[in-house]
Amino acid sequence: MSGLKNYIRTLETEFQETNDEKVEVQISLLKEIKRSLPTLRLTLPTVTFQNMYTFEGSKRSATLMTKGGGHSPCDSFLYLPNDKVIFMGDLLFVKSHPSIFEDSDVDNWIQTLQELIM
């Protein structure tokens, strides 16, 4: 919490100097996280999967998949086959430059995206 508070103060100083709207939005988001952290409870998963896991509901199915790490080592996505909708999280960046980290696997990331296009 102290690191988060210090980071917010640093951003507030930056905002005072620059009046940058993006910094203001980031401050707002981080303050909301700071407010909610004390009420959060760590809950371990009750279901895990290796490559694919399908949920069967009363109206549709949903498939949770991974092709290994791309943007980050734990990348996964959710596909609704009947609706032909996919939720890709931080595997897909639209109208912005993707963040690449030390543990990103860019080659696998590109391969995953190419497979999902088809």
UniProtKB/TrEMBL annotation:
Gene3D superfamilies: Ribonuclease Z/Hydroxyacylglutathione hydrolase-like (3.60.15.10)
InterPro entries: Metallo-B-lactamas, RibonucZ/Hydroxyglut_hydro
SUPFAM superfamilies xrefs: Metallo-hydrolase/oxidoreductase (SSF56281)
Ranges of residues in domain Metallo-beta-lactamase: 41-116
Protein name per its UniProtKB record: MBL fold metallo-hydrolase
Species this chain originates from: Sporosarcina contaminans
